[in-house]
Amino acid sequence: GQSLEQPSEVTAVEGAIVQINCTYQTSGFYGLSWYQQHDGGAPTFLSYNALDGLEETGRFSSFLSRSDSYGYLLLQELQMKDSASYFCAAYNFNKFYFGSGTKLNVKP
Amino acid sequence: EAGVTQFPSHSVIEKGQTVTLRCDPISGHDNLYWYRRVMGKEIKFLLHFVKESKQDESGMPNNRFLAERTGGTYSTLKVQPAELEDSGVYFCASSQVPGMRGEQYFGPGTRLTVT
Question: What's the pLDDT at B100?
Fold first, then answer.
Protein backbone atom coordinates (compact mmCIF):
# COMPACT_ATOMS: atom_id res chain seq x y z
CA GLY A 1 0.00 0.00 0.00
CA GLN A 2 0.87 3.65 0.00
CA SER A 3 1.74 5.44 3.22
CA LEU A 4 3.44 8.62 4.34
CA GLU A 5 4.45 9.21 7.92
CA GLN A 6 5.03 12.61 9.47
CA PRO A 7 4.85 13.88 13.06
CA SER A 8 1.41 14.99 14.14
CA GLU A 9 2.50 18.15 15.91
CA VAL A 10 5.58 20.31 16.37
CA THR A 11 6.06 23.40 18.51
CA ALA A 12 8.78 26.01 18.06
CA VAL A 13 9.44 29.62 18.99
CA GLU A 14 9.47 32.63 16.74
CA GLY A 15 12.79 33.09 14.98
CA ALA A 16 13.82 29.46 15.40
CA ILE A 17 14.39 26.75 12.78
CA VAL A 18 12.14 23.70 12.56
CA GLN A 19 12.38 20.54 10.49
CA ILE A 20 9.34 18.44 9.58
CA ASN A 21 10.22 14.92 8.49
CA CYS A 22 8.34 12.68 6.11
CA THR A 23 8.98 9.05 5.34
CA TYR A 24 7.09 7.43 2.53
CA GLN A 25 6.30 4.04 1.14
CA THR A 26 4.80 4.19 -2.33
CA SER A 27 5.11 2.44 -5.64
CA GLY A 28 5.92 4.37 -8.78
CA PHE A 29 7.36 7.32 -6.87
CA TYR A 30 8.10 10.43 -8.94
CA GLY A 31 8.66 13.13 -6.36
CA LEU A 32 7.70 14.68 -3.04
CA SER A 33 5.68 17.86 -2.60
CA TRP A 34 4.97 19.97 0.47
CA TYR A 35 1.80 21.92 1.14
CA GLN A 36 0.81 24.41 3.83
CA GLN A 37 -2.72 24.72 5.13
CA HIS A 38 -3.97 27.35 7.53
CA ASP A 39 -7.07 26.48 9.54
CA GLY A 40 -10.12 26.51 7.30
CA GLY A 41 -8.11 27.38 4.22
CA ALA A 42 -6.97 25.67 1.06
CA PRO A 43 -3.72 23.71 1.01
CA THR A 44 -1.13 25.79 -0.82
CA PHE A 45 1.90 24.47 -2.63
CA LEU A 46 5.29 25.13 -1.06
CA SER A 47 7.88 23.00 -2.85
CA TYR A 48 8.60 19.89 -4.87
CA ASN A 49 11.61 17.58 -5.01
CA ALA A 50 11.96 15.26 -7.96
CA LEU A 51 15.66 14.65 -7.42
CA ASP A 52 17.74 13.97 -4.35
CA GLY A 53 19.02 17.03 -2.58
CA LEU A 54 17.93 20.35 -1.21
CA GLU A 55 15.58 22.85 -2.83
CA GLU A 56 15.49 26.33 -1.33
CA THR A 57 12.69 28.85 -1.64
CA GLY A 58 13.18 31.82 0.62
CA ARG A 59 12.81 30.81 4.26
CA PHE A 60 11.64 27.33 3.28
CA SER A 61 13.80 24.46 2.07
CA SER A 62 12.90 20.90 1.20
CA PHE A 63 15.09 17.85 1.01
CA LEU A 64 14.68 14.44 -0.58
CA SER A 65 16.60 11.19 -0.31
CA ARG A 66 15.12 8.57 -2.62
CA SER A 67 17.38 5.82 -1.29
CA ASP A 68 16.05 6.41 2.22
CA SER A 69 12.44 7.14 1.13
CA TYR A 70 12.70 10.24 3.25
CA GLY A 71 12.25 13.93 2.93
CA TYR A 72 11.93 16.97 5.14
CA LEU A 73 10.73 20.53 5.10
CA LEU A 74 12.93 23.07 6.83
CA LEU A 75 11.46 26.37 7.96
CA GLN A 76 13.88 29.08 9.03
CA GLU A 77 13.35 32.35 10.88
CA LEU A 78 9.95 31.17 12.02
CA GLN A 79 7.17 33.72 12.09
CA MET A 80 3.82 33.57 13.83
CA LYS A 81 2.12 33.34 10.46
CA ASP A 82 3.89 30.01 9.84
CA SER A 83 1.55 28.39 12.36
CA ALA A 84 -0.35 25.97 10.12
CA SER A 85 -0.53 22.34 9.08
CA TYR A 86 2.10 21.03 6.70
CA PHE A 87 1.53 18.04 4.45
CA CYS A 88 4.00 15.99 2.50
CA ALA A 89 2.64 14.38 -0.66
CA ALA A 90 4.19 11.69 -2.82
CA TYR A 91 3.52 12.07 -6.52
CA ASN A 92 2.79 8.87 -8.40
CA PHE A 93 2.27 9.81 -12.05
CA ASN A 94 -1.52 10.10 -11.81
CA LYS A 95 -2.08 11.21 -8.28
CA PHE A 96 -0.72 12.43 -4.98
CA TYR A 97 -0.66 10.48 -1.76
CA PHE A 98 -0.73 12.77 1.26
CA GLY A 99 0.46 12.32 4.80
CA SER A 100 -1.78 13.14 7.76
CA GLY A 101 -0.20 16.52 8.22
CA THR A 102 2.00 18.11 10.88
CA LYS A 103 0.50 20.91 12.92
CA LEU A 104 3.16 23.54 13.55
CA ASN A 105 2.61 25.82 16.52
CA VAL A 106 4.85 28.89 16.57
CA LYS A 107 5.05 30.60 19.94
CA PRO A 108 6.32 34.10 20.70
CA GLU B 1 -6.60 34.96 -12.35
CA ALA B 2 -9.33 33.34 -10.29
CA GLY B 3 -8.38 30.37 -8.15
CA VAL B 4 -10.16 27.09 -7.68
CA THR B 5 -13.61 27.62 -6.25
CA GLN B 6 -15.90 25.17 -4.52
CA PHE B 7 -19.55 25.33 -3.61
CA PRO B 8 -21.01 25.07 -1.07
CA SER B 9 -18.47 25.85 1.62
CA HIS B 10 -20.50 23.93 4.17
CA SER B 11 -23.27 21.37 3.91
CA VAL B 12 -25.17 19.64 6.68
CA ILE B 13 -27.47 16.83 5.59
CA GLU B 14 -29.18 13.86 7.14
CA LYS B 15 -28.18 10.29 6.53
CA GLY B 16 -29.88 9.01 3.41
CA GLN B 17 -30.08 12.39 1.69
CA THR B 18 -28.26 13.43 -1.44
CA VAL B 19 -25.64 16.15 -1.74
CA THR B 20 -23.86 17.54 -4.78
CA LEU B 21 -20.58 19.37 -4.46
CA ARG B 22 -19.26 21.59 -7.21
CA CYS B 23 -15.74 22.54 -8.20
CA ASP B 24 -14.65 25.16 -10.70
CA PRO B 25 -10.97 24.70 -11.56
CA ILE B 26 -8.59 27.38 -12.76
CA SER B 27 -9.36 28.18 -16.37
CA GLY B 28 -7.22 26.14 -18.75
CA HIS B 29 -6.33 23.45 -16.24
CA ASP B 30 -7.07 20.10 -17.82
CA ASN B 31 -6.34 18.11 -14.68
CA LEU B 32 -8.89 18.11 -11.89
CA TYR B 33 -8.68 16.10 -8.69
CA TRP B 34 -11.05 15.38 -5.83
CA TYR B 35 -9.77 14.64 -2.35
CA ARG B 36 -11.33 14.08 1.03
CA ARG B 37 -9.98 14.68 4.49
CA VAL B 38 -11.61 13.08 7.47
CA MET B 39 -10.77 14.89 10.71
CA GLY B 40 -7.12 14.51 11.64
CA LYS B 41 -6.33 12.04 8.91
CA GLU B 42 -4.61 12.23 5.57
CA ILE B 43 -5.90 14.09 2.55
CA LYS B 44 -7.09 11.10 0.57
CA PHE B 45 -7.23 10.94 -3.20
CA LEU B 46 -10.65 10.19 -4.68
CA LEU B 47 -10.28 10.64 -8.43
CA HIS B 48 -8.57 12.43 -11.27
CA PHE B 49 -10.06 13.91 -14.42
CA VAL B 50 -8.14 14.84 -17.53
CA LYS B 51 -10.51 17.17 -19.31
CA GLU B 52 -13.84 15.34 -19.22
CA SER B 53 -12.37 11.84 -18.89
CA LYS B 54 -11.84 9.98 -15.65
CA GLN B 55 -8.15 9.14 -15.60
CA ASP B 56 -8.17 7.40 -12.25
CA GLU B 57 -11.08 6.83 -9.89
CA SER B 58 -9.43 4.22 -7.72
CA GLY B 59 -9.95 6.29 -4.59
CA MET B 60 -13.72 6.53 -4.80
CA PRO B 61 -15.06 4.80 -1.69
CA ASN B 62 -18.06 3.06 -3.25
CA ASN B 63 -20.81 3.45 -5.81
CA ARG B 64 -22.65 6.00 -3.70
CA PHE B 65 -20.16 8.54 -5.03
CA LEU B 66 -20.48 9.82 -8.58
CA ALA B 67 -18.23 12.41 -10.15
CA GLU B 68 -18.72 14.15 -13.46
CA ARG B 69 -16.94 16.81 -15.41
CA THR B 70 -19.15 18.01 -18.18
CA GLY B 71 -17.32 19.58 -21.11
CA GLY B 72 -14.06 19.43 -19.27
CA THR B 73 -14.82 22.52 -17.22
CA TYR B 74 -16.43 22.37 -13.79
CA SER B 75 -16.91 19.13 -11.92
CA THR B 76 -19.55 17.80 -9.56
CA LEU B 77 -19.31 15.12 -6.91
CA LYS B 78 -22.60 13.61 -5.85
CA VAL B 79 -23.08 11.48 -2.78
CA GLN B 80 -26.28 9.46 -2.83
CA PRO B 81 -27.40 8.30 -0.33
CA ALA B 82 -25.10 9.91 2.21
CA GLU B 83 -23.85 7.93 5.20
CA LEU B 84 -22.36 9.14 8.48
CA GLU B 85 -18.84 8.10 7.45
CA ASP B 86 -19.00 10.43 4.43
CA SER B 87 -18.50 13.43 6.70
CA GLY B 88 -15.30 15.32 6.08
CA VAL B 89 -13.80 18.10 4.02
CA TYR B 90 -13.88 17.56 0.28
CA PHE B 91 -11.17 19.36 -1.63
CA CYS B 92 -10.86 19.93 -5.32
CA ALA B 93 -7.54 20.73 -6.98
CA SER B 94 -6.47 21.51 -10.50
CA SER B 95 -3.23 21.67 -12.43
CA GLN B 96 -1.89 22.09 -15.94
CA VAL B 97 0.90 19.54 -16.09
CA PRO B 98 0.86 17.64 -12.80
CA GLY B 99 4.11 15.77 -13.11
CA MET B 100 6.42 18.61 -13.95
CA ARG B 101 6.55 20.46 -10.66
CA GLY B 102 4.37 18.42 -8.34
CA GLU B 103 2.11 21.41 -7.93
CA GLN B 104 -1.65 21.51 -7.61
CA TYR B 105 -3.93 24.41 -6.84
CA PHE B 106 -6.48 23.59 -4.20
CA GLY B 107 -9.89 25.05 -3.55
CA PRO B 108 -10.99 25.98 -0.03
CA GLY B 109 -12.97 22.76 0.35
CA THR B 110 -16.53 21.83 1.18
CA ARG B 111 -17.13 20.73 4.76
CA LEU B 112 -19.76 18.01 4.66
CA THR B 113 -21.49 16.90 7.82
CA VAL B 114 -23.85 13.95 7.68
CA THR B 115 -26.06 13.60 10.77
Answer: 58
